[in-house]
Amino acid sequence: TAYATALVRRMHTVPSDYDNPASSYTVRIYYLPADTSFAIAQALLAAQAIDPAAVSTPGKWFKYEGTASAAAIAQVGTSAGFGSGTRTFLTPSASGTETGVSYVEFSGITSFSTFGFMGAAGTIGIVLPITLTRFDATVNNCTVTLKWASATEENFSEYQVQHSSNGVDFGNISIVRGTGSNSQYSFSHQPGNGRAYYRLRSVDLNGNFSFSKVVVITNACNGKRSILLSPNPVLGSSMQLSINGFGSVIKGILYNSIGQQIIAYRLENGSNTLAAGKLATGVYCLLVMDENGGREAIKVMISK
Predict the structure, then answer these.
(1) Can you tell me the distance from the alpha carbon of 212 to that of 78, in angstroms, rounded to the nearest whole number?
(2) Order of strands across the sheet with 226-230?
(3) Cα separation of 176 and 167, whole Å?
(4) Where would I find the beta strands (DSSP E) of 78-191?
(5) Rounded to two decimals, what is the model's pTM?
(6) Residue 106 CB contacts under 8 Å (≥ 6 apart), including other chains
(7) Distance (Å, whole) CA 234 – CA 119
(8) How far is Cα of residue 233 from the mean position of the Cα atoms in its chain?
(9) Are 14 and 113 spatial neighbours (Cβ–Cβ below 8 Å)?
């Protein structure tokens, strides 16, 4: 069994004004069980351990020297590990609940900083026969382009391209089949304004999987309308439509090659998954419009 670790979402920082106390103190930290559960769940998804010293399921509380949680988080994923010279793992001297809120206590504390929890979880001891040499993202004219490359792909099936708007909840936006070792890949997406997070879920022929690192971009489209359909031609039962710059009430109408309306969709700026399983093979036109009169059209090819 291998292990991986991940930090809790919520840190607790005691200002340095309280540093160097005359004697030791007992510190009580209140927390939500959902926070520590999240860290443990994220550890299951981690590609590697943040700090090998934390390999102890389900995780450990720690104290990190420094007055800001950002200083602790900044150490994640660095070659030096999780600030091994400045963090101290703690063993609670007491724990319980008070008015329904969970807490842990640490005695003998003589300096203050950031307190937090690092979740740890055992992962399946299988290493996928794939090695990525790059995975990065760029944004231009409202469109995010993801590029990645493999050095080896053995017994490999597919890349599941995943997107998140908050860095926590990821969902598939496309599936890219592996084409063999030393391959180059590219995928385009229009996520809407704001931050967008991407990762790859690599799956082998036996169903085993691993995750790539997460790449983050900030998209600012300044009201320009854009529309992108993927894949196109559409091969499966659904298609991914990414739009941006439209109003608050958006609808899409799919017409066949002789101008007949086939399907009407309710849409929103950002990513939309549209059903395509019942569409016959052929060429269609998708018209997207909003309440302000804005409209864009795109040709849709259904191939089965």
Answers:
(1) 16
(2) 226-230, 238-244, 270-275
(3) 22
(4) 87-90, 94-98, 101-109, 114-123, 130-140, 143-153, 156-164, 171-177, 184-189
(5) 0.43
(6) 26, 27, 29, 61, 63, 90, 91, 92, 93, 115
(7) 41
(8) 27
(9) yes
Bridge partners of residue 32, in order along the sequence: none
Please report, for residues 105, 168, 259, the alpha-carbon distance to residue 187 in angstroms, rounded to integers and kept in the order given. Answer: 48, 21, 31
Give the CA distances from residue 201 to residues 109, 164, 170, 182, 273, in Å, rounded to whole numbers and listed in that order. 42, 13, 10, 18, 19
74-91 pLDDT, tens per residue?
554 443 445 445 677 888
C-alpha–C-alpha distance, residues 193 and 174, integer Å:
20
Nearest to 240 by CA among 170, 292, 163: 163
**Of 95, 88, 85, 82, nearest in space to 36 by CA:** 95
Give the pLDDT band of residue 50 (cuts 50, 70, 90).
very low
Residue found under tokens 């053995």: 154
3-state percent breakdown (helix, strand, coil) of the chain, nearest 5: 10, 55, 40
Buried b (16+ CB within 10 A) or exposed e, 194-211: eebbbbbbbbbeeeebbb
**What is the DSSP-derived secondary structure letter of residue 18?**
G
pLDDT tens digit sequence for 139-189: 876 778 999 999 988 888 999 999 988 777 788 999 999 999 999 999 988
**Cβ atoms within 10 A of the Cβ of 16, count?**
14
On whether the CB atoms of residues 36 and 120 are closer than 8 A, the answer is no
**Residue 132 and residue 179: Cα distance in Å, rounded?**
13
Helices of type H across 66-179: 69-73
What type of residue sits at position 173?
I
Q: Are the C-beta atoms of residues 161 and 173 closer than 8 Å to each other?
A: yes
Q: Reply yes or no on whether the pLDDT at 42 is more than 70.
A: no
CA–CA distance, 73 with 11 (Å, rounded to integer): 9
